[in-house]
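Reviewers of the previous submission asked for a worked example of the structure-prediction workflow described in the proposal, so we include one complete record here. The input consisted solely of the amino acid sequence. No template or homolog information was supplied to the procedure at any stage.
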Amino acid sequence: MSNNIAFQSVKNLRSMLQRGEVTPVELVDTFAERIERHNPQSKAFITTTIDTAREQASRLSRGDLNGSSFAGIPYASKDLFDVQGVRTSAGSRAFHDRIAKKDAFAIAKLRAAQAVSLGKTNLHEFAYGATGENEVYGTAVNAYDPTRLAGGSSSGSAAAVAFGLVPAALGTDTGGSVRAPAALNGLVGFKPTIGRVPTSGVVPYCWTLDHVGLMTRTIADCADLLTIVSGYDPSDPASVNRTVENYPEALDQDISGLRVGIPSNFYYERADDEILEALERVKEYLVANGAKLMPVTFPDMEHSRTVSLTVQMPEALSAHSAYLQERGDLYSADFRAGLALGQCILAEHYVKAKRFIEIYRQQTNRLFDQVDLILTPATPEIAQKVGTVKVTRNGVNEAIGNAITRFTTFFNMTGHPALAMPCAMHTQGLPIALQLVGRYFDEMTVLRAAHAIERSDQFSIPLPKVDV
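From that input alone, the workflow returned the following structure tokens.
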């Protein structure tokens, strides 16, 4: 049965459930067997909840399976999301005994939709890093080449979907931590507008920049998942009380007349030639289908990463101050060094960085007076080897984490919805991905354009050669 299930979309699995070709328990058992077989290599999961999942699946009736689009569907969540009664480790020794008392908002919504949690996925400790390297739980690897990084910080969520261990997963995205690993593993990764999906019940890293994100195989599955987990939670100061749209409704609309912004600065610079060539083919396809390409100029990006870090580190320090006093010796040296950096950032610098972010938001928002979407590469590099420290491109040395997220970080500061999806294969046998960015709360247009691209066989990629 594994051959017929492992790499199916949620939509196909739901059809199989409704037709009685497979039961919810059989789905759980199939994915559980794959987790047992592939987790030692993939390092995707930290904690599994197979017994609980099997019990939940056994209670689902045929009528239940006609409910939500995720009824009876297994999924996983980055181990920052609280799942009632399950440890939330955050990828750290420091949280070895932190048992969640209630579900995070997104988990509660999935539970209400009768989705079935198979467990908690690996991550860069406390989401502090873009490579996914973790000294406690191991480093999640790339399904297309296990000698390469899955990317981070939502490394385990990407590996879980890419290795065929679950059909969908939740992650968090503070600087590209969903979009970048999705891009490197040939998946769809979506960071909705800030406030669209509440972060309540998610271990914080940086309140200003944290977003809940989604990883799926297809745009349709992403649209379904977004419809389920979106909402308003007054306990989350960033949450926005706005009607949740039925995102799948927009998918089959054409893209004729869509104005697509092509950045004239930063986003097409210092990137792998094959990635840039793939984006040219995407542009040609959009034009052939009635879209109009228009140049746009972004704000000066020279100091944007510094601005992001100047906000991240003091907020991370604030979030962890109580734990540091009690169990600082259980934090990794890498994360402690980052928190120490937070202590060195003056209030004056933090305030200036927050003002820069507001300026970035205003200036970027004005671009959408001219265009409906913005198209960029998702990453400037393909997945690099595990252990890589720096990448050299056009004579410039760049830390690997900075390279992985160079094209994603800015949109965490602005808060615009941004989606990564595969669009080609590199000659080295690794996925290439594009990024689509939309107006605030216009996830519908982002998903519509992404679906139009996905429909073309020109941009489909092969599945990883994982033993099924």
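The mean pLDDT is 96. We consider this example representative of the routine output the project will generate in years two and three.
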